[in-house]
Amino acid sequence: MKKTKLFLKAVVVIGIALAFVMPGAAMIANRESVNVDKPAYVSLPKILGFEEGWVEQASGFWDPSRGINFMDAVDENTAWAVGYDGTGGSVYETLFTTTADGGSLWTANKIFLDEGYGLGNICGLDGSTAWAAVFSTGAQDEKCGIYKTTNGGDSWVHQFEGPYSFANNVWFFDENDGVALGDQADDYFEVWTSDDGGDTWTRVPEESFSGIEVVPGEYGWTGVMDAIGDNTVIFGTHAPEGNAFISHDRGLTWFGSFTGCSGSGLNPGVNELAFKDPDHGLAAHDNGATYDLYTTSDGGVNWEEITPTGTPYASGLSFVPGTGNMYISTGGAEGTSGASYSLDGGQTWTDYTEVIDIQLLSCDFVNGGIGWAGSFNTDEFTGGMYKYTPPPNQAPSPPEIAGEIDGKAGVSYEYSFKSIDPDDDDIAEYTVDWGDNSGEETITGPFASGDFAYASHTWANQGDYVITAKAKDTNDLEGPEGTLSITMPRSKVVTSTFFQWFLQQFPNSFPVLRIVLGL
After folding, report:
1. Cα distance from N-terminal residue to C-terminal residue, the chain
2. What is the pTM of this model?
């Protein structure tokens, strides 16, 4: 079957072709561009000489109505994206576009000129080096497989003719270690690894897969994958239901599980994956309007359905690195176009009001909250990309301090510290002054915004003290101080051994004094 991960619902859906070309092959669909009225707004930061929020850029494609179905943001200046024909004509080309200057200039190109081939995804290492997975809309042939560029996309080397089933995705963790993801071959998923930059590849053996069994006809989706940290990669499948396969060792071993994603609909199974760390992430199924969301907290072993508040749009999903639990969704369907964000792991979604009703497609974000979402272009110089730049960083709130406020000198007490970051940045550290001239203490994180940090302290002497604390976010911005006033009364420890001996010898003497001294 032909396939690709394209979740487009447009005003008029033209020519969505699903043709069976080989057993177990992947499905390809097309999202179309539609004309929408964009809300007029003026961004004050533009007047001041800099831009924040969602800003339209030119994707660089020379033909109109070219969309983006995979985005890889490398850093705040560098990104690579896969393009496709959004006119509904089902013309497949090896289109891509890339920027190395923050999106001021996107340079579009093709890996080769032949039609009938498409890109599953693209993985950029930097502004010069990237890998791409190439598939055929017909039978897979010698032109399919993995390609590499080292000159910013000007030319590409065909490194690997395969996977033989269908080249869904490729990912490199660094200049050497990478993984290529295909469909089934010999009754299990075709996954290949490389440790020399893609010059040579080794197929992962069947015994390296565990968990849920692969079923006949199950296949992966182009673009439906995510990589997290230094070692973890995950891909989603269509089957009778949607499964996910995750590796925590750069593709050498895999564990499969059922995510909860339905196997029905225009794009059955898992249509998007976004992880914040190797244990925590989201799987999404396009229900025809929005995403059905499922979350895991144990690295994909178990999944739980989310009943979200607000709109999780159904074209793109990305975790925002460096934040506590922030995800961004984008959508390009009629009636549900725009973008939204969640600060609580997908439970609650808030719209970005400036892009409501604007078609936004695949998205990806980097540290600092900067990211890109694809759209549809008008021509080479107009449209096709949106960049998001967050407002200037805001400082964390004064820490809330909780613990014993009426204690005893000489006794250790534990206190909690909690700060909220308006940008949902992690709290890098808390600086605490216990108020007794003992010096400042640093509680080193990172801690998610709103999570507790703990520290203990002992006051040697009686007295009244004020604990003060400040929180610093991961962008090195320190917030105002929070305080807690406490009292440490006089210790009731008697240090005169003669006096203790005297009271022991005359136990019935001075009963009131004994009570006062606590003896």
Report:
1. 86
2. 0.77
